[in-house]
Hints:
The protein is an alpha/beta fold. The protein has helices at 17-28, 35-48, 56-61, 93-103, 106-122, 132-136, 150-163, 170-186, 208-221; strands spanning 6-10, 31-34, 68-73, 76-81, 84-85, 125-129, 142-147, 199-202.
Amino acid sequence: MKPYVSVAVDGPVGAGKSSIARTAAKMLGYIYVDTxxxxxxxxxxxxxxxxxxxQPDAIASVLPEIHPEIRxxxxxxxxxxxxxxxxxxxxxxxxxxxxxxxxxxxxxRAALLDLxxxxxxTNNVIMDGRDIGTVVLPDATVKIFLTAAPEIRxxxxxxxxxxxxxxxxxxxVLADLNTRDYNDSHRETAPLKQADDAVLADTSALDFxxxxxxxxxxxxERL
Length: 223
């Protein structure tokens, strides 16, 4: 039996990792795994329960109470938190910042590591996040670092939030994005960085369809 194919897609916030990786997975017949959603679920729990995000020990202490799951329903990924579907709520801006805070805690990353790796052992997957190619799947079949200019990423995220009816401004979205970029790349545990053997994919000048085609082509060329 041929070994399962694992594709690691890393990159900064707002690079379109989730939407592009999800579409590419569908085009290739792979399972899409949005690892960032798991951290968002942990962040949501901490946000709801008033956990001090500036205290790693406080975050680590509630981990036994948090049970995130990835479920595939009609081919679409849903995120469950303690058996509640929170797929929409975890996308709110305040939960983005909470996710950034909890993802810097080594105990959180360790708790979610096996869950992520097990999915790659039993499926052909495209998995996206911040440290997939460097930490979660260091032996991934294909590694891609997906990025775009900060202003481009902020505009895409701003349009996405507006479409969902979220009240915000482009300036606020750009400021949040720059903060998360700094936090993600400077944290002690598994900082955001391009793996040495990852292919750089800059989509600044590409539309969504072109970006998906680029990712699929990179994967096919390396199989």
